[in-house]
Amino acid sequence: MSYLHLYFIHRGLYLWLALIGLAIAMVNPKIPLSLNVNNYMFVIDITQSMNVKDMHMNKRPISRLNYALQLISMSLKEFPCGTKVSIALFANAEVVPLYVPIEICENFGVIQDTLKHLEWRMAWRGSSHLRLGLIDAGSVSLTLPEPTKIIFLTDGDEAAPLNAITKVDLQPMQGSSSWLLAGIGSKEPSPIPKFNSKDEIIGYWSQYATKIEPSQIVNEDSIGKRDDSIASEPHEYYLSALREEYLKEVVSDINANYVRADLQTKFLAAINKLPSAGNSPAHVETGWIFALISAFFVIADYLPKRKNLLH
Question: Do the beta carbons of residue 63 and residue 52 sit within 8 Å?
Fold first, then answer.
């Protein structure tokens, strides 16, 4: 044993160092850091084309909307604690968040219950203007307390159909690299079912009804009355399909990302590839480090004395 070591033990320096470390641990100093933010707002298209049953789960046909809801529900189980999630609805030209992003583990039951009770009858209008919805989603994201990634689940089927007049320029939205548009639906066209207020199917949407402006009302001057007109012959049906090429065009316009969400693995992989939505200030507590250092010095002071007693 060196003379210097004996001197340290004799003078009790280890215990003094342990005392200093313990005092610092009680103060618990914090180191400021900037952490990447992985918060998500899942925007769900609840317009009536999402009622088409052209998706499958457990080998059974399921509507696009119910598929999207179950896809989110299952995927959230793979997210780590600390992740914050919000659920929002899209119809007409608006995106309406049901709540700001909340921590997933503490609020898992709340989020799952939200998904369980969402349905098409929550839509405030029957029309679907995706480009305007994206612009509104951007506005909503600016009101959230933290940077948030947007996951927009839709079939991309606009109603009334897009034309040169209604095609809104999305160039000002470029820079949405942390956004993901998830395509839901089959590429094979299918008629859109029409339901009454009891969620009972009464027929199918006609080409005429969707061409002018699909609505839940008889006409624009009769607010509150449902439009119960239906296509009388198959050739009158409005056929809906996943508008994948259109969605790819949209993500190209805003520099976002696209995935065809026909598999959960593909959906999760696309989400995990998204860059951070931004940075959030955080403080790391260091008290525990100084507590460990104090314990080390106490042990260092004790062991040589114990060794001498044994000899």
Answer: yes
The C-alpha atoms of residue 278 and residue 231 are separated, in whole angstroms, by 48
Q: Enter the pTM of the model.
A: 0.76
End-to-end CA distance of the chain: 14
Region label for 91, one of left (φ > 0), alpha (ψ between -120 and 50) or beta (otherwise): beta
Predicted confidence at residue 221, as pLDDT, reads: 47
| Prior bond of 300 cis (ω within 30°) | no
Q: Give the start-to-end residue ranges of the domains of the chain.
A: 3-29+286-310, 35-281
Element (H, E) at 152: strand 149-154
Q: Which residue do the tokens 């992985």 mark? A: 38
Give the CA distances from residue 297 to residues 4, 68, 148, 307, in Å, rounded to whole numbers and listed in that order. 16, 57, 45, 16
H or E element that contains 307: helix 287-310
pLDDT recorded at residue 224: 45
Which residues contact residue 265 at a Cβ distance below 8 angstroms, ignoring those fewer than 6 apart? Answer: none
> What are the pLDDT digits (tens) for 209-248?
766 666 544 344 444 444 556 766 677 788 999 999 999 9
**Contact (CB, 8 A) for 76 and 111:** yes
Q: Which CATH class is domain 35-281?
A: alpha beta
**261 contacts: CB under 8 Å, gap ≥ 6:** 68, 71, 153, 182, 183, 184, 267, 270
Provide the pLDDT for residue 309. Answer: 47
Distance of CA 30 to the CA centre of its chain: 31
